[in-house]
Amino acid sequence: MGLAALRGLALALISLPGAVLCLVLSLVSIALIPIGVGIVTTPWVLTGVRAFADWRRVLAAEWGGVRIPSAYRPLPSPYVANPWSRTFGMLGDPATWRDLRWLPVDMTAGFVTALLPAVLLFYPLEGFAVAAGLWRVFADSAGGTYWYGFVPVTGQASALGAGALALVLLVFAHFYTPSLLQAHFRLTRAVLAPNQGELAERVRVLTETRQDAVDTSAAELRRIERDLHDGAQARLVAMGMDLGTIEMLLDKDPEQARQLVAQARQSSVDALAELRDLVRGIHPPVLAERGLGDAVRALALRLPVATEVNVELPGRAEAPVESAAYFAVSEVLTNAVKHSGADRIWIDLHHVREGAGLLRVSVTDNGRGGAVISAGSGLAGVERRLGTFDGVLAVSSPAGGPTMVTMEIPCALS
Questions:
Q1: End-to-end CA distance of the chain, in Å?
Q2: Contact 111/188 with Cβ under 8 angstroms?
Q3: Segment 273-312, tens digit of pLDDT
């Protein structure tokens, strides 16, 4: 009871100024879009509104057991997308307008419903003080009659009536204070939760990305089978035939047998190298042992182009996320080396604590530019791979360069 009241009081004290500040800044920033100022400020203001709404979602789940799904459309990094596209991308998201509709509700009905648990708990204390004899002080300050609730206090008898009312309110507080706080979070969910159409669209996108993941997995299995059949398996079969021939030539032609032994040894070396390359293509050992940062550094060392890698990862993501990010970076680097004509590449990996967290990877080269995401291209494959994890890909590549490819994957670090 007491905990729910204190939480409600804290919410009331924070929700009113927080909602007012977010609403005022949002309206002013959007109003300034026609003169250009709002183009720059609106993405940052709306990002703050989203952070405020996400924080309330967390409190609703932890304090009230009320789950409020978040259905924001993914957006490219502010360091890649121009302010114009980012501003209208956010304004085109129905979740943005839902947040803005929620702010006035939160500062009015939300404020009242958050404050009610504290009022229901602390207001009886005043009734007990009146019944204990302080009614005279309150009556004098009120000019003769002091009202406690609906009880007019003019003497000790009526003061005891106020005390009885306070006792009833305290009983109600004991049973209903947690429910009142939960009602506040249900009100928040009623305004912030996405509608059925948005949820259906979300399910459709997830179904598509799941199908892409299944297709990618099947294609990867076929590639592994083909590489094994055409590479290591063929060499091992040839080595077995050489060993059979050596067995027959040991007594008849030792010199020819020695040559075949050397050939078989080379075949075994080549087969082992191909198996190692195959394993590295499935899941690089350095990625499993040392994490994404060191794996990307190792990848950069094998490039024929001077590459600078900057890593700021305080922990490790889940293995599937690391694997997806690694192979996405590998594909982007391969494209840069083959097609950009660049003589320098910069790679930046860092984790952003927005909402549940965001792994952001950017690859920049000083090549000729002109890179686009087209059907069947390597970048389209990267986009599909990231989509499996709700990730996004943004490409900025004007003619003449430079090219910047940014990848974002929602994830938490351990």
A1: 35
A2: no
A3: 666 665 555 566 777 778 888 888 888 888 888 888 888 8
Q: How far is CA 352 from its chain centroid?
A: 9
The tokens describing 164, both together, are: 């009885």
User: How many alpha carbons fall within 13 Å on the CB side of residue 148?
Assistant: 28
pLDDT tens, residue by residue, 3-33: 776 777 788 888 888 899 999 999 999 998 8
Q: What is the mean pLDDT of the chain?
A: 76
The pLDDT of residue 132 is 66
Residue with tokens 């927080």: 18
Contacts of residue 127, defined as CB under 8 A and 6 or more positions apart, other chains included, come to 148, 149, 162, 163, 165, 166, 167, 169
82 dihedral zone (left: phi>0; alpha: psi -120 to 50; beta): beta
Token pair 């890179």 is at which residue? 371
pLDDT value at 148 more than 70: no
The pair of structure tokens assigned to 387 is: 């989509």
Angle between the N-to-C axes of helices 233-252 and 254-282, in degrees from 0 to 180, rounded to the nearest 10: 170
Angle at CA of residue 341, ends 276 and 371, nearest 5°:
90
Specify the 3-state DSSP secondary structure of 371.
coil
